[in-house]
């Protein structure tokens, strides 16, 4: 893990970064998009608004957040300056940023060797699969991804922040979670 942290620092190139959280011996690896303001402040993924939603959804899986390994596709906060306030505001990560951190995420997977990888939203899904797949088409479906010499189960979920902006997605999300719960139980987790 030390080596990965060092590599993360190098890739972040002087910017503040947020690495990961949770258990290294976990069977479930959760991959989000990128940290926001609160995450950078507290140096922990998913502690802001999206984190609250995530905690609620994790509790529906019947497991504890601390039992998972949680990380992000991009480890720095993608931001731009607001023309109005001059303050930093979040933006989506660029393809270059997603590509830059890909090798690190793959190394994390090889180190953790989870039984299942759960991606949140489009960014980590595309980063892993490296093709133009859309979360709207594959959410709640069990997929597979090869990393190194292993094939991992991959379960794509919408990003919890998308439920904040689109209340209609809430029930879809809950249905996907109940499918994930079945898969997890099937794996004996
Ligand atoms: N959203 C993410 O995708 N990751 C975080 O760490 C926080 C919000």
TrEMBL record:
Q: Give the EC number(s) listed in the UniProt record.
A: 3.2.2.27
Against CDD domains, the record matches this protein to: UDG-F4_TTUDGA_SPO1dp_like
Q: Is 4Fe-4S a UniProt keyword of this protein?
A: yes
Q: Which SUPFAM superfamilies does this entry report, sorted A to Z?
A: Uracil-DNA glycosylase-like
Ordered alphabetically, the record's keywords are: 4Fe-4S, DNA damage, DNA repair, Hydrolase, Iron, Iron-sulfur, Metal-binding
Q: Example GO molecular function term?
A: metal ion binding
**Lineage: superkingdom:** Bacteria
Catalysed conversion reaction: Hydrolyzes single-stranded DNA or mismatched double-stranded DNA and polynucleotides, releasing free uracil
Pfam families in alphabetical order? UDG
Residue span(s) of domain Uracil-DNA glycosylase-like = 19-178
Which GO biological process categories is it annotated with?
DNA repair
Which NCBIfam families does its entry note?
A: UDG_fam4
Give the UniProt family note: Belongs to the uracil-DNA glycosylase (UDG) superfamily. Type 4 (UDGa) family.
**Could you tell me what this protein is called?**
Type-4 uracil-DNA glycosylase
